[in-house]
Amino acid sequence: MVAEDVAPPETEAPAEQAQTHGGKPTVACKVYAPFKVYFEGEAYSVSAVNATGPFDILPKHHNFLCMLVPCNLKIESPDGEKIIKIHRALMHVKANRIVVFMDV
């Protein structure tokens, strides 16, 4: 068997690798409460406010966990901007995925 005839094994992309939409990197995002999903999909960025002030989460962000204070959660997605009013929420960022648990 000749080396050129051997195809390399297929490998899956690591979970933390950013997806792209139109060449722009995205991060998986889900915002939900116990009985309602407010947003689920890809996002270019997510902006919110915690006790230390406003911040943004972008694709490939380091692991992050915080409580959100009352604010407008802003999600920039391929479908446009979405604003969700937050009263109390927990934000968890890990492996290029943002999860916001509302009403906790």
From TrEMBL:
SUPFAM superfamilies: Epsilon subunit of F1F0-ATP synthase N-terminal domain (SSF51344). GO terms for cellular component: proton-transporting ATP synthase complex. Residues 8-20 have a biased composition (Low complexity). InterPro entries: ATP_synth_F1_dsu/esu_N (IPR020546), ATPsynth_dsu/esu_N (IPR036771). Residues 29-103 form the ATP synthase F1 complex delta/epsilon subunit N-terminal domain. One of its GO terms (biological process) is proton motive force-driven ATP synthesis. Residues 1-23 are annotated as: Disordered. Keywords: ATP synthesis, CF(1). Gene3D superfamilies: F0F1 ATP synthase delta/epsilon subunit, N-terminal (2.60.15.10). This is ATP synthase F1 complex delta/epsilon subunit N-terminal domain-containing protein. It comes from Candidatus Mycosynbacter amalyticus.
